[in-house]
Amino acid sequence: MTTLFGSLMLDIHGTWLTAEDRRILRQPEVGGLILFARNIEDPRQVRELCASIRAVRPDLLLAVDQEGGRVQRLRNGFVRLPAMRALADNDNAEQLAEHCGWLMATEVLAVGLDLSFAPVLDLDHQRSAVVGSRSFEGDAELATRLAGAFIRGMDAAGMAATGKHFPGHGWAEADSHVAIPVDERSLDEIRARDLVPFKRLSQQLAAVMPAHVIYPQVDAGPAGFSRRWLQDILRGELGFDGVIFSDDLSMAGAHVVGDAASRIEAALNAGCDMGLVCNDRASAELALGALQRLKVQPPKGLARMRGRGFARTDYREQPRWLQAVAALRAAQLID
């Protein structure tokens, strides 16, 4: 049987599925579900929740944001990974980054999830509070090397990587969760620095997530709604042929396009394969209705985002686990 994926990723309110959750998840236009901290208690509960979701829709992509540092939804019973910016100051930074990628992916896969939206490829320009320590570095070359090592670790564990937030959120000071950030730099300036990690790693990334940032010297709209950014530059110039996920279309940075129905239509028209509508079930319903009216076809390529064989639950006894944890402890990056 061919696996079909819808174009909408949404969320649920609690730690178990309600009848209403089951109803909406059965809609073929829904292709994924993302968990937040409110959905998570401990590893056993997450495994049971994932199993109940797959009982309704075995084909759904199940995601989480598990970057490390302050963006880490899985906490109780999971390794508290450092913020990625803390790695660069170590002599063995690339090895530590690979350990972090493997540990993160292993734990996420072990509870039945497919992917974490990671790594962050934004550069730390010392301007954006929302990026800050989530970035590997401000230097494009070093950030690329460390992110590449993190991706190698993810790949070894069986998880596909998603680079975010294309073409770079590190210069714009506003937080796209609550405002509409603007980056006034020229395309040449962005190419010279912020695009470097995306360009160098384009063949290692299975997916990319664009930023809700407006770059007015390139396009009047946010990158996630821009064919110039997604088709001409990401696909054409950088040669990226993987999946494009929108960032959360409920964020303030996406509201310039209109309501949720308009936003998901604009994101898909620009080149996104799947739109995320989170923390607002009414908006998710609007987006779903738009996909049903438009008769959007299932996007191609999403199957590559499935976890490649879920990790065993006894992963903490594996030699690689013990080695990775020992290295991070020696660098005083985890407890």
From TrEMBL:
One of its GO terms (cellular component) is cytoplasm. Residues 18-288 form the Glycoside hydrolase family 3 N-terminal domain. InterPro entries: Beta_hexosaminidase_bac, GH, Glyco_hydro_3_AS, Glyco_hydro_3_N, Glyco_hydro_3_N_sf, NagZ_Beta-hexosaminidase. Belongs to the glycosyl hydrolase 3 family. NagZ subfamily. PANTHER family: BETA-HEXOSAMINIDASE, BETA-HEXOSAMINIDASE-RELATED. HAMAP family: NagZ. Pathway: Cell wall biogenesis; peptidoglycan recycling. Substrate binds at D65, R73, R134, K164, H165. It is found in: Cytoplasm. This is Beta-hexosaminidase. NCBIfam families: PRK05337.1. Keywords: Cell cycle, Cell division, Cell shape, Cell wall biogenesis/degradation, Cytoplasm, Glycosidase, Hydrolase, Peptidoglycan synthesis. Pfam families: Glyco_hydro_3. The active site is at H177 (proton donor/acceptor), D247 (nucleophile). Its main location: cytoplasm. Signal peptide: none annotated. One of its GO terms (molecular function) is beta-N-acetylhexosaminidase activity. It comes from Aquipseudomonas alcaligenes (strain ATCC 14909 / DSM 50342 / CCUG 1425 / JCM 20561 / NBRC 14159 / NCIMB 9945 / NCTC 10367 / 1577). One of its GO terms (biological process) is cell division.
